[in-house]
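Researcher: Next sequence.
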Amino acid sequence: MRQDTVYAHLQVVFLRNFLDHILLDAAKEMSEIKDRFEKGEAEEQEDQEVAIDYPLFRVKFGLHAVYYELNALVEKHLQDKVKPLFSAHKAGVKWKTVDELPFREIIKILKEHFGDLNEVLPDWEAYQRLRKAVNALK
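Model: Next structure:
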């Protein structure tokens, strides 16, 4: 397995682990909140719905972070695919390096070289859905 593939796999494993911890922590805290209210141990002015918002917001922020990181991981992979092709497209291009390329230019170069991205990039449609979801979070 290539080193960049191993690194990407590890990043996905770490992201999954991060998300698992966030979900477990939130579930535990929400259960404790529910128990506190059922036993009548909650502060008099405390509102159960407001108390549950805190772990829910942490889950939301954690999901956003995972989405953004997955998106960045795939974009880095696409940049790496474009690097060997970039010099052939450099003439007349205002960007000096692949890292400066807007996403649409990366896709343009990949399509010019490979044709239909659905055929050469595994799970291309899944990535497009992920990118759309990430952009919707902005």
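Model: The chain has five helices and no strands. The chain has a mean pLDDT of 86.
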